[in-house]
Specification:
single chain, alpha+beta, five-stranded antiparallel β-sheet
């Protein structure tokens, strides 16, 4: 196959792979990149092979200008929209170039545009799919560069092909469905013919493509390039202490987690539809480290919200002025605990609280031996934070560990001890004013929730006569209201809320309870919290994440944005606890967790069913995690911990004693003491000085003796070594002797000359000047033997090896005679 055709296919494949990388980065907006991929392959047939559509350079420039103007207005949007606009512009320009007749200029432009597409794709998405796509892209790029080099060299030595190439730039303005294949006709002599590049490889390079040697070489280059890239990537020191590659490139658009210190009922649906990775959670036994599996989905607490604003449909933390914040303490005795290790997605930015960076965790949480001292516990709100505030833009830690109680079953699993003392006046105001407040209308005269209040009253009225008579009143009311939503209220869980709204003049929570009865978890949590407050039961909305996807390869739970959840906590005093709970264990009361969302009834975590698809998904998720940890988030701290420190511990530490001053001093003291010499601790010691000079004298003598022996024996050792391990350069060294002899006679090889060109020039000069005729034949044979050894990998016959010396002697005699004649 012709070089030009291979190059056209390779460039089209490179353009297609660049467009596919953009498609991966844009996600749901991948229609245009996929169209560009189809256009790349289509252009090979309709433009390069058939010549049906070929754009002139002027027309192509005009189309590119229109593409720039068309993309200009997209640059006024947000930052991510600017990247999308750049991606679109690159695709437009690429399509214009693909349908031009291919010249060196067009090939270069297509290659540069494809590289820019990779850069933009990296800024949009740095997932493992992007990394896997880089492998075929790199292989195609190296192949394209090799083909381009061969093609360009073919143009340089083939004048007809060069003339055809130059004629392409002067084509008519536009050629469309000419019906004439570019391979037909005399492209050089017929100026009206459809011009195409039809160059073939020179004869001496024909076997490169027929035998596949070039592609094998490309595979070798790709392998060694990949190895060098990996070594350089991990060994080159990073200078940003907190930054990571993914934060500045991929997935690093500053994505927030689903929750801040306030949440809006209108946003939760969009949050829950996101499949973005948030954190990896591994639960293990405290002592043995054995993986702990939960039968039901764990709750990873974020923050608690107390105040609802009807105008903005928003919950916020509240106006409590004093919180009880303390460092994480070790767990108290008398309970079962589990070790909770959480690794966060560094390309996602966790929100900040008043205490620091918000951390998600099962609650209550305690310190282990590996828990950072910067982690603090807001015991009033039940919020875990990272208090270290050295840098304004500091992100959440890459990994943190906490000890949490292990209560997966029963009533105790939903009881959270309150750790803020009840005798605190500010806290009691928070409980019995903020957490029982029912929002009023804009005139502060009537409640916004008449239907909700009536429903709550009906449920309370039915509670004493029910089966929960033995439970304390507050617990019975709370659980009765929870069951109403989850079991017998005919409520439906849905992320699409707005189409179900029936009365926009009502508050959305009231409309949800009374009318459409369809909503996501925040609607259910908001309704239950306000219903409890109408009965003077303190209640707050809690947001965080629930459950996760268990990975059988990594033995961890992958928590994603789609696991975002909201639930309710109501406060119980020690005498209001459920039956069977010891009041002495809860002197400050407790919080009862209630989850009224129907889709969130206790259900098993997603486990792999053992099918091929599930196994592949678990494997891919595990690979993506490794990619995120060791490529995207490879910052200075991780590099030091995972690469530099292990290398130092294994390679450097065993030799630390050889450079340790104290150990050497101890060795010398003990050695001298064994000889009866005792050194003092003074800065200067006469005995030590004499001993040091004697040691230096011995070292000098040893060095001189060794150098003398080496000088005497080195020529013999070198000959012996060359005999045992002959190399191409040694076996072909006679040529350099020949070149040295000729230089003494006035013939010096230029930097641009090959060895054969130099010898041919010397032979021609000898014949022209009629000198050194007897050395012409020996030089011809010597240069032939040199090429056979140096580039052919051959070994000369013994007769030829013997003849080398005779030929060199003949050349030496002739050059000496020439020098004598000049004098």
């Amino acid at each position: 196959m012709r070089v030009e055709r291979l190059l056209q296919i390779s460039v089209a494949l490179l353009a297609a792979l660049g467009s596919l990388l953009l498609a991966i980065g844009q996600g749901g907006q991948a229609a245009l990149p996929l169209m560009a991929t189809m256009a790349a392959f289509c252009s090979v047939y309709v433009t390069d092979i058939k010549g049906w559509i070929t754009l002139n350079r002027n027309l192509a420039n005009f189309a590119a200008l229109i593409a720039v103007l068309f993309s200009f207005f997209d640059f006024w949007d947000a930052d991510d929209a600017k990247l999308i606009a750049i991606a679109k512009l690159l695709i437009y320009l690429q399509i214009v170039l693909l349908f031009q007749p291919k010249t060196i200029r067009v090939y270069w432009h297509l290659a540069v545009l494809s590289l820019l597409q990779v850069v933009v794709a990296a800024a949009l998405n740095m997932g493992v799919s992007f990394g896997l796509m880089l492998i075929p892209y790199s292989l195609t790029a190296l192949t394209t560069l090799c083909l381009f080099f061969v093609y360009r060299e073919t143009l340089r030595v083939d004048p007809e092909l060069r003339a055809a190439h130059d004629a392409v730039e002067n084509r008519p303005l536009f050629s469309f469905f000419s019906g004439k294949s570019p391979d037909r006709g005399d492209l050089i002599n017929d100026p009206n013919a459809s011009v195409s590049l039809v160059g073939q490889l020179p004869a001496n390079l024909a076997n490169v493509f027929s035998s596949g040697k070039m592609f094998a070489q490309v595979l070798k280059m790709s392998f060694f390039t990949l190895c060098a890239t990996v070594i350089l990537f991990y060994s080159f020191p990073r200078f940003d202490e907190g930054g990571a590659f993914g934060q500045s490139f991929g997935g690093g658009l500053g994505t927030q987690t689903g929750f801040k210190d306030q949440i809006s009922l209108n946003d939760m649906g969009q949050i829950l539809q996101s499949d973005q990775f948030v954190m990896r959670v591994r639960l293990t036994e405290v002592n043995s480290g054995k993986i702990k599996d939960t039968e039901y989905e764990p709750y990873f607490r974020g923050t608690s919200l107390s105040t609802y604003f009807p105008n903005s449909k928003t919950w916020i933390v509240g106006n409590l002025r004093e919180y009880l914040v303390s460092e994480i303490k070790p767990p108290p005795a008398g309970q079962d605990y589990v070790r909770q290790t959480i690794a966060t997605n560094q390309s996602m930015r966790f929100d900040r609280t008043n205490d620091g960076i918000l951390l998600f965790s099962m609650y209550p949480a305690y310190a282990s031996d590996r828990t950072s001292p910067d982690i603090v516990d807001n015991q009033t709100l039940g919020v875990i934070s990272m208090s270290n505030d050295k840098r304004a833009n500091e992100r959440q830690p890459e990994e943190y560990e906490l000890i949490v109680p292990w209560n997966p079953f029963g009533t105790k699993s939903n009881i959270i001890p309150n750790q803020h003392p009840l005798d605190d006046r500010e806290f009691r105001t928070y409980l019995y004013r903020d957490l029982v407040q029912v929002p009023l209308d804009k005139d502060f005269a009537n409640t916004l929730f008449p239907g909700l209040r009536n429903l709550a009253d009906e449920l309370v009225a039915s509670t004493p006569a029910g089966v929960d008579r033995t439970e304390p009143k507050h617990v019975s009311i709370a659980q009765r209201m929870e069951r109403y939503f989850t079991y017998d209220g005919n409520y439906t869980y849905s992320l699409h809320v707005l189409p179900h709204l029936k009365n926009t003049r009502l508050d959305p929570i009231e409309d949800f309870v009374v009318n459409h009865k369809t909503g996501h978890c925040e609607f259910f949590a908001s309704a239950l919290a306000i219903m409890l407050r109408t009965q003077r039961i303190p209640a707050r909305v809690v947001v965080g994440y629930k459950g996760g996807e268990f990975n059988t390869f990594g033995k961890y739970y992958a928590v994603k944005q789609k696991h975002a959840h909201a639930w309710v906590e109501c406060f119980l005093t020690s005498d209001q606890l459920p039956e069977g709970m010891n009041p002495d264990d809860y002197p400050n009361g407790a919080w009862l967790r209630l989850d009224p969302t129907p889709a969130s009834r206790p259900s098993p975590n997603r486990k792999s069913s053992g099918t091929i698809l599930d196994t592949f998904l678990d494997w891919f998720d595990y690979v993506e995690l490794a990619w995120r940890d060791y490529v995207v988030d490879m910052n200075q701290d991780r590099q030091t911990k995972d690469i530099y420190k292990p290398l130092t511990d294994n390679l450097v530490k065993p030799f630390e004693g050889w450079v340790n001053r104290e150990q050497w001093m101890k060795f010398f003291r003990e050695s001298l003491e064994s000889m009866g010499i005792h050194l003092s601790d003074k800065m200067f010691s006469g005995i030590a000085s004499i001993f040091t000079m004697l040691i230096l004298l011995v070292l000098v003598v040893v060095f001189e003796v060794g150098r003398t022996v080496l000088r005497h024996w080195w020529p013999r050792l070198r000959k012996l070594f060359a005999k045992w391990f002959p190399s191409d350069s040694h076996r072909a060294g006679f040529y350099f002797k020949l070149e040295k002899m000729l230089s003494k006679a006035g013939w010096r090889r230029e930097k641009s000359d090959t060895p054969r060109e130099f010898i041919n020039r010397v032979i021609a000069d000898c014949r022209t000047r009629n000198v050194g005729s007897e050395m012409v034949s020996p030089m011809s044979e010597l240069i032939d033997w040199y090429y056979q050894i140096r580039f052919g990998g051959r070994t000369l016959a013994p007769q030829q090896q013997q003849a080398i010396g005779e030929h060199l002697l003949k050349v030496e005699q002739q050059t000496a005679a020439i020098r004598q004649a000049k004098r």
